[in-house]
Specification:
The protein has 137 residues and is an alpha+beta fold. The protein folds into two domains: 48 residues, no CATH class; 75 residues, no CATH class. 25% of the residues lie in helices and 12% in strands. The strands form two sheets. A two-stranded antiparallel ribbon has the order 1-2. A two-stranded antiparallel ribbon has the order 3-4. The longest helix has 16 residues.
């Protein structure tokens, strides 16, 4: 992930997909070696960053389910979940909010059934949406 932040800064980010952490004990400090490695990786695609220096940063969590697909449905009587949308949540939020509201009111959209939380217990994980990229699809 790379985007301009003002006229002479960039905001960079990446994920470590295999790393599972305890969210209550997660260290949000960006180590200097991580910042340098991230900057070097970005500079391979954006040569203007060759001479750039890290100016700080933070680490955060990436919200995904075991199959990298959303988890949407009722998990207990009257308790619903809509999670695991990773970086897609901000753009899917309005549409999913409407569909989850309809679900809560007893008008489920059949297309949401595949995202039911029970799929993990039954082993019915969803395939990746775009080849092996593990994004919604």
């Amino acid at each position: 992930y790379c985007r301009p932040e003002g006229s002479n800064h960039y905001l960079l980010g990446w994920t470590h997909a295999a790393e599972q952490v305890d969210p209550d004990r997660y260290d949000t400090t960006l180590r200097r070696d991580e910042g340098v490695a991230l900057l070097e990786a970005a500079a391979r695609s954006l040569p203007a960053l060759d001479d750039a220096q890290p100016r700080g940063g933070w680490a955060s969590l990436y919200d995904v389910s075991p199959d990298w697909q959303p988890v949407i449905g009722e998990i207990a009587d009257g308790v619903f979940v809509d999670a695991g949308t990773s970086g897609h949540g901000f753009k899917l939020g309005p549409a999913l909010g409407k569909k989850v509201a309809e679900l809560i009111l007893g008008h489920p959209d059949r297309r949401l059934a595949q995202f039911h939380p029970d799929r993990f217990a039954t082993g019915e994980l969803l395939p990746a949406g775009y080849r092996d990229a593990r994004i919604l699809g």
